[in-house]
Write a structure and sequence with these properties.
The protein is α/β, with parallel strands linked by helices. Helix content is 20%, strand content 26%. It has a single domain, classed as Alpha-Beta Barrel (TIM Barrel), CATH 3.20.20. The strands form five sheets. It has a nine-stranded mixed sheet. The longest helix is centred in the middle third of the chain and has 13 residues. Bound molecules: iron/sulfur cluster (2 copies). One iron/sulfur cluster binds next to loops.
C-alpha cells in the first residue's frame, strides 16, 4: 500500500470512533444504530487495512481511538487490530463482551488498554433484554482480575430503569464500576434525550444547514463521515481512512438533511473530561447570499 499522509486530529476534537463492523450478535430494541433509515455499508476493511488507517492518526494522550460497532469483536481480526495499533495511540473499546475472554486475556496486554482517565477503557454495555447479568458480571470480574480497566454501562431505558438501577447496586457491591447512560431515542411515541437543536432528530423536515463536527467517525469500510446519521444512513462519506491523500478538513459542511440527525450527534452530553454541556456537532443556519 502507498504511504498514507498523517491525519492530524484538531485540538478541539473530542472523539475518534472506528466502527470495525456495524453487525452485532445482539438485537436490542432501542439500538441507536437503527434510529434512522438503515443504510450502512457492510463492507469491512481487513485487519491490516484498519491498522494502516488508524496508525496514520496523530492524536493526544487524552483522545484515544475507540474501537466500537455494532460489536467490534465480530471483526475477524479484532485482536490483531488491537495488538498492532501504534503505542502512541491510546485505545478504548465499547463492547457487549459476548466474546471469548480467555482468548482475549491470553493475547492482549492489559496495560495496552489502560490510561489515566475518569472512566474505564473497556466499556461494557449491559442490555437486560438480551443478556443475563450474572454471567456478565463474572466475565467482567475475570477481566478485572487479569488487570484490565473495565466497567459496565447500563442504558436508563424507561422500561428498564428498575432493573438497571438494581444491576448497578449489585455490581458496585462486587467491586465493579457501573454507570448509567441516558436513553436516547423513541419509546412509546416520545423522544428521549436533551438535544441542542430543536427538531433535529424528529425526522419531520429536511432543512439545509452548515454543520461542523468534533469527531472522527470511520465506518466499517474506512469511510469517514460528517456524523453518525450519515454513517448509519449510508450517505456519501467525506473521505476514507485508507485513501493515501485523505486530509481531515475542520470545516463547516453544507448538509441538506438537518432534521434527520442522530441523537448521538446533537445530544447535550459530557465531553472526554466528563464536563457536561458538550455537543458533537455545531450547526448554523445557511445565510442567504
Ligand atoms: S449490543 Fe449495542 S450495538 Fe448490539 S444491538 Fe445492542 S445496543 Fe445495538
Ligand atoms: S445537520 Fe445533522 S444530519 Fe446533517 S451533518 Fe449535521 S448532524 Fe449530520
Amino acid at each position: 500500500m502507498k504511504e498514507l499522509k498523517p491525519i492530524i486530529i484538531p485540538e478541539h476534537y473530542n472523539y475518534i470512533a472506528t466502527f470495525l463492523t456495524l453487525a452485532c450478535n445482539l438485537k436490542c430494541s432501542y439500538c441507536i444504530n437503527h434510529f434512522g433509515k438503515d443504510g450502512f455499508v457492510n463492507k469491512r476493511l481487513s485487519g491490516e487495512e484498519w491498522v494502516q488507517g488508524i496508525n496514520r492518526i496523530k492524536s493526544r494522550y487524552d483522545l484515544p481511538i475507540t474501537l466500537q460497532g455494532g460489536e467490534p469483536s465480530l471483526h475477524k481480526d479484532f485482536i490483531y487490530i488491537l495488538n498492532n495499533i501504534k503505542p502512541e495511540l491510546n485505545i478504548d473499546i465499547l463492547t457487549n463482551l459476548q466474546f471469548d475472554i480467555n482468548e482475549f486475556i491470553a493475547k492482549v496486554d492489559p496495560n495496552r488498554i489502560k490510561r489515566n482517565a475518569p472512566y474505564a477503557s473497556i466499556r461494557v454495555s449491559y442490555h437486560p433484554e438480551q443478556m443475563e447479568l450474572l454471567p456478565l458480571v463474572e466475565k467482567v470480574l475475570r477481566m478485572q482480575d487479569a488487570g484490565f480497566s473495565i466497567g459496565i454501562w447500563g442504558v436508563l431505558h424507561p422500561s428498564q430503569e428498575d432493573v438497571i438501577r438494581k444491576a448497578q447496586e449489585y455490581c458496585q457491591g462486587r467491586g465493579i464500576d457501573f454507570r448509567f447512560k441516558e436513553f436516547l431515542g423513541e419509546y412509546d411515541g416520545k423522544l428521549y434525550g436533551t438535544f441542542k437543536y430543536e427538531g433535529s432528530c424528529d425526522r419531520k423536515f429536511e432543512k439545509k444547514v452548515l454543520c461542523k463536527t468534533t469527531e472522527l467517525i470511520a465506518g466499517s469500510d474506512g469511510s469517514i463521515y460528517r456524523c453518525h446519521s450519515d454513517l448509519y444512513e449510508g450517505r456519501t462519506p467525506v473521505g476514507n481512512l485508507i485513501d493515501p491523500n485523505f486530509e481531515l478538513e475542520d470545516i463547516y459542511r453544507v448538509c441538506e438533511v438537518f432534521g434527520h440527525c442522530n441523537p448521538c450527534d446533537v445530544k447535550v452530553k459530557t465531553n472526554r473530561f466528563q464536563q457536561y454541556g458538550h455537543t458533537s456537532v455545531d450547526i448554523k443556519e445557511v445565510t442567504p447570499a
